[in-house]
Amino acid sequence: MTAHASLERALGYTFQSAALLEQALTHRSHSGRHNERLEFLGDAVLNFVVAALLFKRFARLDEGDLSRLRANLVKQAALADIASRLTLSNYLRLGEGELKSGGFRRPSILADALEAIFGAIYLDGGFAAAEDVISRLYEPVLRNVDPQTLGKDPKTLLQELLQGRKLGLPVYNVIATHGAAHNQTFEVECFIAELDIRVGAGGASRRAAEQSAAIQAIAAVESKAPQKGGRKSKARKSAQLSLPVAVAQESK
Amino acid sequence: MTAHASLERALGYTFQSAALLEQALTHRSHSGRHNERLEFLGDAVLNFVVAALLFKRFARLDEGDLSRLRANLVKQAALADIASRLTLSNYLRLGEGELKSGGFRRPSILADALEAIFGAIYLDGGFAAAEDVISRLYEPVLRNVDPQTLGKDPKTLLQELLQGRKLGLPVYNVIATHGAAHNQTFEVECFIAELDIRVGAGGASRRAAEQSAAIQAIAAVESKAPQKGGRKSKARKSAQLSLPVAVAQESK
């Protein structure tokens, strides 16, 4: 299994069965012994291990917040990030078609293969081995999680920002629509009366345009009414930090 | 912990921390130290353990079938069944209001408490303890699983029954609707041309009426064109056996 020695080093786990790792790396486009059953198993062990990590790390979060955090940590984009850190694309076995169309870069293929690897480790080394590898890979991710904002969309963040300053809710209005029925774009404005903020943004759906407008509005609130003091300035920082995550979700 | 000794016997697990079991049995209507975070954790360990049991037991099922089976084994009704076997309602701690309205019989409350118990066992005794208890409780359930039919709805089962006999697809028609817009009932007929079968059923939605009609149609196909021979008669038996499950789902 020298071919996979560097991957095993990155995972921090050496397989007893080279065939199991091979199968975890095999996309269904490549051959019959592919990774989809392993992915089913790996998804389940991943969800559990991340749930347990969050449960223990955030002792005061309720189950709704724990669910939101977990959903964000195990979603395709998060898994594809970890797969990239492992340079997993170098090891994938894809069929001709997928190879030519750049399948080894596709987030879904990378995420699925990573889950399949978790399943393979569980079969190969038992639960403790899988828990160990998953915990290690998620350690840097968990260190940077902001439990108050991760996975919240911009409209929610804007609302919480305004509530934290005892200000009224923002109002969203559709200003214009362009294009034919099935190919419309929407222009939306977000209006915050008490701060006299009025910002606009466009999007392929009303919801997408509103979320973009909310991002603009958060920036406007931050610059027009910067908040001072401990607790509140932490909330402000959180909202800023979380935007890239929230936007990435929206474009899914 | 004598108060819970009989529950612990039924579970086959004795808690080191009586407080953890107590918390798992506490509904949020009762007090602040309730079971919702434990339920989050228990749901995750349950999903994983059942996934692993199915993976190992059904080596030839693909991940789609495995997912369907698991969804059915961990759904509220299945968990409430297990909770009843454990007479869990005798041990629940509910608030006044829930007590008076019979909350101790509510499937959702029973299912949530059972998941919370799984989470508590994991915290109290580690993964192996939780795996052991869940495996034992699911053993009789798994023994009776028909992987071909569990969790499939009547329309799907009828279609597969007809395909197995090389017959064409059934046709569903709405014959009549009754009542006002937000309180309509639908009468639907299911027509199988090659067998000259025409059966009708009603329901609160078009889909519900179609599923009821499909149940009638399966019975009609069975009696009009009983199938002989090994493989096919097994398929017939499966379809019959699965109906209670399918109907129970529909009424959810």
From TrEMBL, chains A, B:
Residue ranges constituting the DRBM domain according to the UniProt record: 153-223
Key words, A-Z: Cytoplasm, Endonuclease, Hydrolase, Magnesium, Metal-binding, mRNA processing, Nuclease, RNA-binding, rRNA processing, rRNA-binding, tRNA processing
Catalytic activity: Endonucleolytic cleavage to 5'-phosphomonoester
Location of region: Disordered: 223-252
SUPFAM superfamilies in the cross-refs: dsRNA-binding domain-like (SSF54768), RNase III domain-like (SSF69065)
Function, in words: Digests double-stranded RNA. Involved in the processing of primary rRNA transcript to yield the immediate precursors to the large and small rRNAs (23S and 16S). Processes some mRNAs, and tRNAs when they are encoded in the rRNA operon. Processes pre-crRNA and tracrRNA of type II CRISPR loci if present in the organism.
Oligomeric form and interacting partners: Homodimer.
NCBIfam families from the UniProt entry: RNaseIII
Full protein name: Ribonuclease 3
Organism per entry: Paracandidimonas soli
